[in-house]
Amino acid sequence: MTAPAVRNQDSPLESALLDVRATLADLLVAADEQYAAVVARDHERLESVTRQQERLSARLARAEARRLELLAGTPLIAAVSALPAPAAARADAVRHSIADSVRELKQRQARTARLLDQSIDLAAQTLTFLQRLLTGQPGVYGARGLAPNRRSVLVDGRA
Fold this sequence. Notes:
The chain is mainly alpha-helical. Helix content is about 70%, strand content about 5%.
C-alpha cells in the first residue's frame, strides 16, 4: 500500500492532490486483487480485499476533504492556474493523472461487477437445474426458452 505523499512541495494543494493520486493508485491495485479473488472464487481473499478497499475509501475521503478545504470553494482549475508556473504544471499533471485513475477505477469495478453478475446467474441456473433433478420434473419450454414448472394451488390438489 502506498503511503500518503508527504513531499515538501511548493504548494499544499499539490501535496493534497498527490495524496489523492496515491490513494487512487492503491485502489486500482485493490480492484485488480478483487477481480482475481472473484475469478478464483476465493471468498476469504475477497472479504480481505473488500476490507482493504473500505480503508482506502476512508483514506480517499480524508484526502478529498483536505483538498476541498484547501480550495475553499475555488474551482480546482482556477486554483491550479493561480499557482506559480512550475507548481501549476506539476499540479495540473497530477490533476490529469487523477482523472485517468478515476476512469480506470470505474472500468475495473464495472468489470468485476459484470463477473459477479455472471457468477450469480450461473449459480441460479445451477440451482434451478438441481431442483429439477431432485423433483424429477421435466423442463418446460416456452416462448423464451426453458421456463420453471409452475403449479397452481387451485389446480394441484396436492398443494
